[in-house]
Amino acid sequence: MGDGSTTTIEASFETREAADIAVEHLVQQLGVSRPDIFIQPAADRNTAGLAPSGGDASHEEGARRDAPLEGEIQVSADVSLSQVGAVKRCLGEAGALWVSSR
Asked: pTM of the full predicted structure?
């Protein structure tokens, strides 16, 4: 980021699939640089989210049970101050449970 006028936007998602979609929208629609976006569990434990999604949900024998469903997935992005509103809207439209800035 050029002049140092940046902030971090954080959002929480119920599934890894929703978090991945949010990241793709940030990169493709808003031009946020991929190295400025981070995905991690919202808590201390590794997790695939709160509910099965994507390949976990469409398994032939029902939802897979081997993926840890231990909590929310957090997406954070370091963005310029001019992008804050658009990034918050994008994350909300992608299904964020909450969005905040720090």
From this structure: 0.74
